[in-house]
Amino acid sequence: MALDEHTEELARAAARGDHRALGELLRRIEPDVLRHCARILPYHQDAEEAAQDTLLAVARNIGRFEGRARFSTWLHIVTANCARTTYRSLKRRSAEQSSDELLTQKPDVRRVSVIAGSRLDLLDAMEALEADKPDLAQALVLRDIVQLDYSEVAEQLNIPLGTAKSRIHQARKYVQGVLGDDYR
């Protein structure tokens, strides 16, 4: 999500309490947020839910945006976190349904793309990583989902560059281990 300077300025104004700037900011970022959520979640309805959650999180937490980094970086992090939270919520709701309900709602494997299945597997692997090693998960999300470069990851996490690279490498190995040989 590369945002122009006007959007960055709207974010700074909204962080200072300008409600008009916040409204315009939310309108401007909505399409980018939805696209980013759709890259993470395999189903459009789920991506829309995550995008709405992201916009709500931005509106509620814009005062926490300090302007040290670009707003687009902060927004990437919020978006990735909301998409992952939406996925966990959907997974939890699915587990709570009875097995009869699941049989009637189970997607037809002939109609589910390989890409969608891969994303679900990756989200499961990320969930396992986050539960087991949250410091590694945070570094991996910033590098591979938010697509920050290594120095930006180190800056965001307030750790040395070598530590950031090590965490990302360890996280990738962990996720690759969870996904198995089919994903190498």
What does this structure look like?
- The protein is an all-alpha fold and 184 residues long.
- The chain is 77% helix and 0% strand.
- It has helices spanning 5-15, 19-40, 44-61, 71-96, 99-105, 114-132, 134-145, 150-157, 161-179.
- The longest helix has 26 residues, at 71-96.
- The model is unreliable at 106-116 (pLDDT under 50).
Give the key terms.
RNA_pol_sigma70_r4_t2; RNA_pol_sigma_r2; transcription; DNA-binding; 9 helices; mainly alpha; globular; sigma factor
How are the SSEs ordered, and which strands pair?
Blueprint: H1 5-15, H2 19-40, H3 44-61, H4 71-96, H5 99-105, H6 114-132, H7 134-145, H8 150-157, H9 161-179
Helix pairs in contact: 1-2, 2-3, 2-4, 3-4, 6-7, 6-9, 7-8, 7-9, 8-9
- The end-to-end span amounts to 27 Å
Rounded mean pLDDT score: 82
Helix percentage: over 70%
Main beta sheet strand tally, sense and closure: none
Number of helices: 9
User: Which overall shape is indicated by the principal axes computed on the Cα atoms?
Assistant: globular
> Order of SSEs, N→C?
HHHHHHHHH
User: What are the segments in which pLDDT stays under 50 over at least 5 consecutive residues?
Assistant: 106-116
Question: Strand fraction band?
Answer: under 5%
Assign the structural class, choosing from mainly alpha, mainly beta, alpha/beta, alpha+beta, or little secondary structure.
Answer: mainly alpha
Please provide the count of β strands: 0
Radius of gyration, Cα only, in angstroms? 18 Å
Family: Belongs to the sigma-70 factor family. ECF subfamily.
Keywords: DNA-binding, Sigma factor, Transcription, Transcription regulation
Protein name: RNA polymerase sigma factor
